[in-house]
Design brief:
This is E3 ubiquitin-protein ligase CHIP. This protein is an all-alpha fold. The protein has helices spanning 3-22, 26-39, 44-56, 60-73, 78-90, 94-111, 116-164, 170-175, 178-191, 227-236, 257-270, and strands at residues 216-218, 224-226, 254-255.
């Protein structure tokens, strides 16, 4: 079969696979995409389409395999990075999963910032960040607890030895040294603070939606909004700043890079440990 004929047949198989997918006949869709891959193995969309079918069937190992192949063929495939991130999360590989989702989000925003998939990726990334934070914080909590118990045991042993030299009045000696145990509690409680969920500061949230900023833009009057939200306001409500009521046009909006970096730093520090809508 000539390359042109093979490509034409593979494309027909892709369309067949898409039809099967819409009917939720995922097995038939996988077969169609597999035939297309056999004919034209260097077309990344055939791999991502098949990966999506595997995702629907919760076959995460196969999702990972197909997505990695798609990324080899096209490093800018945000769908491949997205589904690879989800597959890695299933393996509890939170660090690499988050990296893939972040890559998918950046690529998705560049390709089509208003796509529904960008919002979907954002939500999955929020969940992944929380899972990563929860996993790491649980490990740190156990380590802190074990260290605290070892410190308490060491203090008690020291007090016991000191008391044995003072006619063995252990209980009375322990009571006289409670300050050391209180200080120990304060130290470990302070160390555990970063692993406690926290509310997002107001200055990191959009003034309209009160949701955390993702793509912040600043107006001439100095108010920062989420880009998509303020653009929708200008289009549907009127060409004015909703807070200052001053005239405002899309061309006057400027990316607030400093605040965007502040949001990124906050999320990295706190692991997105807060409730996401």
């Amino acid at each position: 079969m000539s390359p042109i004929a093979a490509a034409k047949q593979a494309e027909q198989l892709r369309q067949d696979g898409n039809s099967y997918f819409k009917k939720e006949r995922f097995g038939a869709a996988i077969d169609a995409y597999t035939e297309a891959i056999t004919l034209c193995p260097n077309v990344p969309i055939y791999w991502t389409n098949r990966a999506l079918c595997h995702r629907k069937r919760n076959e995460w190992t196969r999702v990972e395999e197909d997505c990695r192949k798609a990324i080899q063929l096209d490093h800018h495939s945000f769908k491949a990075h997205y589904m690879l991130g989800l597959a890695l999360l299933q393996k509890k590989n939170f660090t690499d999963g988050v990296k893939e989702l972040e890559k998918a989000l950046d690529l998705g925003r560049g390709a089509n910032p208003k796509s529904y998939m960008v919002e979907e990726i954002w939500q999955e990334l929020a969940r992944a960040k929380y899972l990563e934070w929860e996993h790491e914080s649980t490990k740190r909590s156990w380590d802190l607890q074990n260290l605290k118990e070892a410190c308490v045991a060491a203090l008690k042993e020291k007090h016991f030895l000191d008391c044995s030299e003072s006619e063995g009045f252990v209980d009375e000696y322990m009571k006289s040294n409670q300050n050391q145990f209180k200080a120990l509690d304060q130290v470990f409680n302070k160390a555990a603070e970063n692993d406690s969920p926290t509310e997002v500061p107001d200055y990191l949230c959009c003034k309209i939606t009160l949701d955390i900023l993702r793509d912040p833009v600043i107006t001439p009057s100095g108010v920062t909004y989420e880009r998509a939200v303020i653009l929708e306001h200008l289009q549907k409500v009127g060409k004015f700043d909703p807070i200052t009521r001053e005239s405002l046009y899309p061309s006057q909006l400027v990316s607030n890079l400093a605040l965007k970096e502040a949001v990124r730093a906050y999320l990295n520090e706190h692991g997105w440990a807060y409730k996401m809508d």
